[in-house]
From TrEMBL:
Gene3D superfamilies: Winged helix-like DNA-binding domain superfamily/Winged helix DNA-binding domain (1.10.10.10). PANTHER family: TRANSCRIPTIONAL REGULATORY PROTEIN. This is Metalloregulator ArsR/SmtB family transcription factor. PROSITE patterns: HTH_ARSR_2. It comes from Pseudonocardia xishanensis. The lineage of its organism: Bacteria, Bacillati, Actinomycetota, Actinomycetes, Pseudonocardiales.
Length: 105
């Protein structure tokens, strides 16, 4: 997997864009509206460009608008990469819970 995916996911605004797109496709204008209080349209466009370059979103021109949609495949690869760590933390938390229960007795 490309480091571009992890770099794209590192920014909280880009993660929020992905969360919005998980609800369905949006136009660039609709996405900019989601962030109007915090970001300019050009700033949102830059974040979309990073996400697109990383393969996390794709766009489709329809008339005068571009519709962006989530591309889930790179996220599945991230989930696969995280799986061993999830198992580690589950085991660690289970061991901690067992220890605490034994101490409470």
């Amino acid at each position: 997997m490309s480091d571009a995916v992890y770099l794209a996911l590192a920014h909280p605004v880009r993660r929020r864009v992905l969360q919005v797109l998980a609800g369905g496709p949006r136009t660039a204008g609709e996405l900019a509206g989601e962030f109007a209080a915090e970001l300019s349209r050009p700033a949102v466009a830059e974040h979309l460009a990073v996400l697109k370059k990383a393969g996390l979103v794709r766009d489709e021109p329809r008339g005068r608008h571009r519709h962006y949609r989530l591309t889930p495949e790179p996220l599945a690869e991230v989930a696969d990469w995280l799986t061993p760590f999830e198992r580690y933390w589950r085991r660690t938390l289970r061991d901690l819970a067992e220890f605490v229960e034994e101490e409470d007795v």
